[in-house]
Design goal:
The chain contains 3 helices and 8 strands; from the N terminus they run αβββββββαβα. It is an alpha+beta fold. The protein binds zinc ion (ZN).
Length: 166
């Protein structure tokens, strides 16, 4: 399921009960797991739906800024910068691991919300990373496909040990 390309939600179904239920399940799953984003294929639904946002997060204490909650249906990304921004990414579908990924640091995101309203937003650095990671899930791409180096990847507890050693 994680490797499939997800189907767009037809315009007539964007505000449907089915999508509202899916979005509710996704927020519940994301919050329970302490995630900062979740894509529908991660809960076994191959539709182009993503939720993002958090207020406090134990899995990522290094992220100091909150990320606003947004529901994205059929999101599209336009890359605005060739410069990259690197971050040790994790994923609820690749538990207890982190890997260093560099992604374009500035993007323009276009999407519909669950009420059918259209949005457009420019995002940079950390926020741009989160949205690119989640939207990749819709094309069957995981962050482990985008590692800067296979050496910059491992179990969280092992990586912490390396960090602590002098
Ligand atoms: Zn993920």
């Amino acid at each position: 399921m994680l490797r499939k390309r997800s189907e767009p939600v037809p315009e007539t179904e964007i505000s449907s009960k089915e999508i509202k239920r899916l979005v509710r399940d996704m927020y519940d799953t994301m919050k329970d797991a302490g995630g900062i984003g979740l894509a529908a294929p991660q809960i076994g639904v191959c539709k182009r739906v993503v939720v993002v946002g958090f207020e406090e997060n134990e899995r990522y204490p290094e992220i100091e800024e909150k990320i606003e909650f947004h529901t994205l249906i059929n999101p599209e990304i336009e890359y605005l910068d060739t410069k990259v921004y690197g971050f040790w990414e994790g994923c609820l579908s690749v538990p207890n691991m982190r890997g260093y990924v560099e992604r374009p640091r500035k993007i323009k995101l276009r999407w519909n919300d669950e009420n059918g309203d259209f949005h457009e937003k420019i995002l940079e650095e950390m926020e741009a990373v989160v949205y690119q990671h989640e939207c990749d899930h819709l094309d069957g791409v995981l962050y482990i496909d985008c590692l800067k180096s296979p050496l910059l990847f491992g179990f969280c507890d092992e990586l912490e040990k390396i960090q602590e050693s002098p």
